[in-house]
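Annotators were shown the component list below and the corresponding predicted structure, then asked to write short factual statements about the assembly.
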Amino acid sequence: MNTPHNEAKKGEIAPVVLMPGDPLRAKYVAEHYLKDVKVFNTVRNMLGYTGDYQGKRVSVMGSGMGMPSIGIYSHELYHFYDVDAIIRIGSCGALNENIHVRDLILVQGACTDSRYASQFELPGTYSAISSFDLLEKAVNCCREKDLRFHVGNVIASDFFYHADANSAEKWASVGCLGVEMESYALFMNAAYAKKKAMTLLTVSDHLFLKEDTTPQEREKTFHDMMEVALEIA
Ligand code: HPA
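Structure shown to annotators:
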């Protein structure tokens, strides 16, 4: 079996898939955390790997940037490859003064400025949420590891460069903790497929505060997030 975007054969992808935006991050995770690794996808360089993490079979695959991209890959994983859960591992810009660069955000819900939901012709507004099961496990795991983390809503935007200079402040005013570009479509696809999804984000930049980090600090935060994702997978 394969799709226009994924050349994996049925059975080559594990029931749980970790999804960073960047396919080279997927490669890094496979090389640094997994054993007995097999590459299952190279189409468009959207690299996908399956391997063993402490006796658990786990896959990791890039999603690309934005909702059209994660929409395609997550749809195919849920509907054509029997994937049960996708855990997005990404980065975001912080929208709250109590949140700092390198903190973790466990995404509970996602707002959006995209029309992704319109395909379902719902008679209202869809609220896109993480799987409570995965979210609860992630919270417990972050507490055990004593990590700095926040749980809440984010804005999943179609725009990295927004023409309205105040758009971030408007989303912040209704409590969004961060801005990213994928979670709404991922959560909606999971709901429609009756499967699970969740997003873990590291804060890579701050929209209102000037904050710097070193590459070493960023690397450490990325490892913390990866360990949480692998433990809840
Ligand atoms: N906007 C959208 N996506 C992002 C950002 C941002 O500022 N930072 C990291 N991902």
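Statements collected:
1. Helices lie at 23-33, 67-80, 132-145, 167-173, 183-193, 215-232.
2. The radius of gyration is 17 Å.
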